[in-house]
């Protein structure tokens, strides 16, 4: 099963490589925006937006309410697994 993880874009990492720094499940990761942003789009315009990330690539933009609901669902799943943290490790590994 493939699953996108909600992430909030915090800053531009490397505009030439189309990468940003995003926070997902409490971790900061470098994420590639080339699937969403055009080559001439300023990446700074994406800061503060929420995206779904899969394998380091942002695949779609999502609203904050949907992102927070998804994160809450992931936390509930982790708690159902006795809070072992397996969910987080599997998603952002």
Describe the structure.
This protein is an alpha+beta fold and 93 residues long. Helices cover 26% and strands 35% of the residues. The protein contains two helices and five strands; from the N terminus they run E-E-E-E-E-H-H. The protein has a five-stranded antiparallel β-sheet with strand order 3-2-1-4-5, with helices on one face. It is elongated. The mean pLDDT is 89.
State which percent range the strand residues make up.
35-45%
Q: What's the CATH topology name?
A: SH3 type barrels
Compute the number of structural domains: 1
Low-confidence stretches: none
Question: Can you name the CATH architecture?
Answer: Roll
Shape field? elongated
Give the helix level as a range of percent.
25-40%
- Which whole number gives the mean pLDDT? 89
Q: Structural class, please?
A: alpha+beta
End-to-end Cα distance, whole Å, is 15 Å
Order of helices and strands: EEEEEHH
Largest sheet: 5 strands, antiparallel
Number of helices: 2
Pfam family, one: HupF_HypC
Protein name: Hydrogenase assembly chaperone hypC/hupF
Keywords: Plasmid
Organism: Azospirillum lipoferum (strain 4B)
């Amino acid at each position: 099963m493939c699953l996108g993880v909600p992430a909030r874009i915090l800053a531009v990492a490397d505009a030439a490589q189309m990468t940003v720094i995003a926070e997902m499940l409490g971790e900061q990761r470098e994420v590639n925006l080339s699937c969403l942003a055009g080559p001439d789009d300023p990446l700074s315009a994406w800061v503060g937006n929420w995206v779904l990330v899969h394998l380091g690539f942002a695949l779609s933009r999502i609203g904050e309410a949907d992102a927070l609901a998804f994160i809450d669902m992931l936390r509930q799943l982790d708690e159902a697994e006795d809070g072992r943290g397996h969910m987080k490790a599997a998603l952002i590994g």
